[in-house]
Amino acid sequence: MTTVLDVPVSRVEWKGAVRIIRSAFPPIDLFEDIADPADWPLLISAEQKTNPRIMATIGNLDLVPVDRRVAGNGASYLMAPFTHASIDRPSRFTNSSFGVLYTGDRFETALFETIHHHARFMARTLEAPGWTSQFREIIMSVDADLCDLRANDAEPSAALDPESYAVSQTLAASLKSEGSDGIVYSSVRNPDGECVALFYPDCASEPVQGRHLDYHWDGARVDLVRDAGSGAVFRVVELPAD
User: Fold this and answer.
1) Which of 89, 105, 152, 192 would you label with 12, given CA atoms 20 to 30 Å apart?
2) pLDDT in tens, 166-214
3) How far is CA 134 from CA 20, 24, 214, in A?
4) Domain positions in the chain
5) What pTM, to 2 d.p., does this model score?
């Protein structure tokens, strides 16, 4: 089992990293429009007097330390994964007691990671085949010193088990408690790709929206992806198993 002391740290500097999210989540005006995060608690308090539902939009700001918050254009895409952490949505590197921002090193990596999880969701819902939820591509830069699980790919870390998050969640909680900014690891769903799991929003920057995408569910898997802007449709070719 990988332990905290076993994990080396590497500088990760990616331009054009890609995150794919549901289009259902709108930008949060507070993060986009107010330049100084130190002012946010007072502004939220004032806004709640006339809009008691404001916290449902912003989420739990206390989950992000003041000095790690980001603001300005695109800040919603960096802040939301942390302020909207929920025990109902655990993931590989968190039980959702804290937020994590996941990105892939390129579009294909983000695509294969998200269609895997979307397919699992669709299988649980028992929905009929068809075009399903719309997603949006977010392109950003990553610049951080991250705990590196890529170092010994010949013997993959137990934290990268394709079926279980038990080891990975425990490891991530330990790394975060010791001051880590996040983890870089080989993609579990795209053998040629890499991913990062960032523990703080300021480890990424310059987020811009790219394409809107539709995923098609054939009853067993996501088999088609459509660029909602151009209308182009692409067939998803399953990657060979290791």
Assistant:
1) 89
2) 999 999 999 999 999 999 999 999 989 999 999 999 999 999 999 999 9
3) 10, 8, 5
4) 4-235
5) 0.85
